[in-house]
Write a structure and sequence with these properties.
Blueprint (H helix, E strand, L loop, with lengths): L13 E5 L6 E2 L2 E2 L3 H15 L3 E5 L17 H11 L3 E4 L5 H8 L6 E4 L17 H9 L3 E4 L10 H7 L4 E4 L1 H15 L5 E5 L4 H14 L2 E4 L4 H7 L14 H10 L4 E2 L4 E4 L22 E5 L1 H11 L4 E5 L12 H11 L5 E4 L2 H9 L8 E2 L4 H7 L5 H4 L5
The structure holds adenosine-5'-diphosphate and magnesium ion (MG).
């Protein structure tokens, strides 16, 4: 068991807190406050206990000097201060005298945010490559370390693994703890029936998730782009749909080994090209995709079938949209599956994955889920059964 924030003595301590403030910014404005709001419980705990909260995060990617202007965390400091109704000291440096002095001057209960950790990537990718000197330096700025950034937990960076490996005490923050417990609940002790839904673009991206869930779930519904490789393996016509020829044998192997578990779409909404357009459905034979068209969503018979599979589920895990939700005419399948999950009154449901979560949020269906994961890649690697370095590096109780 990993230490959590509740295991730490915080009063009077310099508490380093790695959060995920990688917020979307458009025309100089933050367009979603979700990540800032999600970090508040941990920050509040630290200041309420009389700790000095030294907060930091990455924001986007920094490849050249010119990227820095648009990727400063100053805008987040202003928002954080509003949210907490308290001063947030912003230091526009990631190291050096100015930062060190500001930390020395902090009083108990104060908050300081320092600049985007990835500014250090201009220095031979020091942050992203976990330069040992950088992790050690950041660790030297505090007494204890709290990691509350789930979104980067699948990466070994200086601002998570580097610090954790160089400090006396480390723990998970509330958000990280919540993510780990929600995803572990599903993977380790799901109440059954456990129905998993996997979608998205390619099997090759999701192979780890597919095979991990085929072992653990009672049913695995497969939609989105990867369904066509399976349908082709079954001998159906898939027209110009996305297919991975080199994965057909694997699809056949899974269909054989898990024939009672895999549930595939039984009809399709197609288009003539990969762009938004009217939905074409083969009315005479919904299982077969018409030549010259490609599958872009599931249609009503698949939804009926998937709803039936979900009806008695006690645990539901969803990763990957059912269709190309970027096109408004092909959101239907994803929306209907979200509705079906919303109706399950006594199931524990979790959704993870960058595009799936974005799709469900834009449809306004977050409340359908017991837990909406804040990590894209991190939640996928967690579901694959991998131990994430950002979590592994935290001290055990
Ligand atoms: P997540 O980020 O939730 O893990 P993925 O990245 O695996 O999901 O998949 C999302 C992508 O899958 C989207 O860009 C979407 O357009 C694509 N996709 C979904 N259905 C299809 C389809 N039928 N054909 C091609 N691409 C698809
Ligand atoms: Mg994605």
């Amino acid at each position: 068991m990993k230490k959590t924030i509740d295991d730490l003595q915080l009063n009077g301590k310099k508490v380093l807190i790695r959060v995920d403030f990688n917020v979307p910014i458009k025309n100089g404005k933050i367009t979603s406050l979700k990540r800032i709001i999600s970090s508040l419980p941990t920050i509040k705990k630290v200041i309420n206990e009389g700790g000095k909260a030294i907060v930091f995060s990455h924001l986007g990617r920094i490849k050249e000097e010119a990227d820095k202007e648009k990727k400063s965390l100053e805008i987040v400091a202003i928002e954080l201060s509003k949210q907490l109704n308290q001063e947030v000291i912003f230091i526009n440096e990631t190291r050096g005298k100015k930062l060190e002095k500001a930390i020395d001057k902090m009083k108990n209960g104060q908050i300081l945010l320092f600049e985007n950790t990835r500014f250090e990537d201009l220095n031979d990718k020091a942050e992203s490559k976990n330069n040992p000197e950088l992790g050690k330096y950041w660790a030297s700025l505090g007494d204890v370390f709290i990691n509350d950034a789930f979104g980067t937990a699948h990466r070994a960076h200086a601002s998570n693994v580097g610090i954790a490996s160089n400090i006396k005490e480390s723990a998970m923050g509330y958000l990280l703890e919540k993510e780990v417990s929600a995803l572990s609940k599903v993977l380790d002790k799901p109440e059954r029936p456990f129905v998993a839904i996997i979608g998205g673009a390619k099997i090759s991206d999701k192979i780890g998730v597919v095979s991990s869930l085929l072992e653990k779930a009672d049913k695995v519904i497969i939609g989105g782009g990867m369904a066509y490789t399976f349908n082709k393996a079954l001998g159906f016509n898939i027209g110009n749909s996305l297919v991975e020829e080199d994965k057909i044998d694997l699809a056949k192997e899974y269909l054989e080994k898990y024939k009672d578990k895999i549930v595939l779409p039984v009809d399709h909404a197609t288009g003539k090209s990969f762009e938004d357009q009217e939905r074409i459905v083969n009315k005479n034979n919904p299982l077969q995709i018409l030549d010259g068209t490609m599958g872009l969503d599931i249609d009503k018979y698949s939804i009926e079938l998937f709803k039936k599979e979900l009806e008695n589920a006690k645990t539901v895990l969803w990763n990957g949209p059912m269709g190309v939700t970027e096109f408004s005419n092909f959101k239907y399948g994803t929306e209907e599956v979200a509705k079906a999950i919303y109706k399950l009154s006594d199931a524990y449901s979790v959704i993870g994955g960058g595009d799936s979560v974005a799709a469900v949020e834009s449809l306004g269906f977050e409340q359908a889920f017991s837990h909406v994961s804040t990590g894209g890649g991190a939640s996928i690697e967690f579901l694959e059964g991998k131990e994430l370095p950002g979590i592994k590096s935290i001290q055990d109780k």
